[in-house]
Amino acid sequence: MLLERIVSEGLAHYSYLIGDRNLALAIDPRRDVDDYIKLAAESGMRIAHVLETHRNEDYFTGSMELASRTGAEVWHADGQWDYQYGQAVTAGQRWKLGRLEIEAVSTPGHTPGSMSYLLRDPAGVAWMLFCGDALFAGDVGRIDLMGSDQSAENAGLLFESIFSRILPLGDEVILCPAHGSGSVCGESIAERIWTSIGIEKKHNSRLQAKSREQFVASLLTSQLGRPPYFRRMEKVNLEGRPLLGALPSPRPLGARSFLDLSLSQNALVLDTRQELAFSAAHVPGSQSIWQEGLASFAGWFLSYNRTILLVGEGNQFDRVAAILLRLGFDDIAGFLAGGMLSWHMSGLESASIRTQTVQDLCHTLDDGEKQWILDVRFEGELEKDGRIEGAQHIPITAIAERMQEVPMDRDVAIFCGSGMRSMVAASYLKARGWKRLSVVLGGMAGWRSIKCPISRTSGDQAVSSGSGS
């Protein structure tokens, strides 16, 4: 018997490979499919089917790639849309894999035709449910991707899917969702690597709703934004474009070649180092997104219409490229060999962004000096952790569309939860002409640790807590 979960690093995406005797199937495979083929071959199995739980929005699906290399049949959900490949799944459809059986269960809500797949063990006992984006550990699927005018209807569908179809399967059934903690597909996915229906019934706050109306209302207050790249993923995942081979590795470029390519192709330079390294010196005009934040923020700050050049540390460029390629960013021309050291040794100009500690900012405010503070945290963080009195709030994912609200003629201190997202925002603004920027290191975590003043809102009343240091 074969049962493997394949985790796509950075994306918090889970796909699955299930098999018995000589047959296997994959559920929601990613774009690079070598791992599925290798695992099946090592177990002496042939991948006969590929099942999709829904039309994915956050990564490039590998269904057609896997089909082209194994001869597998592809079965897609959301049969109401114009897929260019595969066949539509029908509720109740079953697949036999040796002694195992898998059954399609209609679970609409996240998308209109979402499907889950119930795995029965050799004795016919309901064992696992591959539930896609219907139900996560600690959360449920988004219902806003079809547009705000359909959100309430989708939330109602999701309520029926979860409470009438999934939960009655039994507390002992193991849940296998398509995403884990850190995914953009859920607002508060818990860090439970494995979970079950019983665990979620007890600990998932979404499932504590006393009525359909309460459940729907809770989902309509979600603060998740819609990354611009979702539109592209929705389109290519209906077309099913195969990659036809392994993910390419970015090539090393000397500093001068890197600069020439950047200028000749108007390339976007992506720097994946930590915020302190980027602040000290970076290629002028480059965009900072630390490596672990790529999956969350690349879709907001990178463009499909520009060649990408990479700057980083160590030998992480294949990992970075894999994350980008899974998001559909194919045009990666290379990376700066030797990093910023080689850039400086070539006599090339670099840029920097000023940083300040939370103590510096707190003292500045205590001394009565005016500072324009840009807080790029999400609304939920403000409600949970409090606000800095007088700060202007623009969520990190809204910087591109609201950057004109940030003054260019004043010193701007950028603030987030830790400082990482602040550098993302600062680099984006700096590349577009803002010069008087600083990043507050430590963010709200540091602010709270030294007891600088914060403002909490209780009803309509703002309450100040803490004291200056």
Description:
The structure is a single chain. Residues 458-469 have low confidence and may be disordered. The strands form six sheets. Strands 1-2-3-4-5-6 form a six-stranded mixed sheet, covered by helices on one side. The protein has a six-stranded mixed sheet with strand order 7-8-9-10-13-14. It is globular and about 70 Å long. It folds into three domains: 2-239, 4-Layer Sandwich (Metallo-beta-lactamase, Chain A), CATH 3.60.15.10; 252-345, Rhodanese-like domain (Oxidized Rhodanese, domain 1); 354-465, 3-Layer(aba) Sandwich (Oxidized Rhodanese, domain 1), CATH 3.40.250. The N and C termini lie far apart (61 Å). With 469 residues, it is α/β, with parallel strands linked by helices. The protein contains 16 helices and 26 strands. Helix 3 crosses helix 5. Helices cover 30% and strands 24% of the residues.
The counted number of beta strands is 26
Total separate domains: 3
Q: Helix count, per DSSP? A: 16
Biggest β-sheet: strands ordered side by side in the sheet: 1-2-3-4-5-6
Amount of beta strand: 15-25%
Q: Over the alpha carbons, how many angstroms does the gyration radius reach?
A: 24 Å
SSE topology sketch:
Blueprint: E1 2-8, E2 13-20, E3 23-27, H1 34-42, E4 46-51, H2 63-70, E5 73-76, E6 87-88, E7 94-97, E8 100-106, E9 115-120, E10 126-132, E11 135-136, E12 139-140, H3 151-166, E13 174-177, E14 195-196, H4 197-203, H5 212-220, H6 229-239, E15 252-253, H7 255-264, E16 268-271, H8 275-280, E17 287-288, H9 294-301, E18 308-311, H10 317-326, E19 332-336, H11 339-345, E20 354-357, H12 358-366, E21 372-375, H13 379-385, E22 392-393, H14 399-402, E23 412-415, H15 420-430, E24 437-441, H16 443-449, E25 454-458, E26 461-465
Helix pairs in contact: 3-5
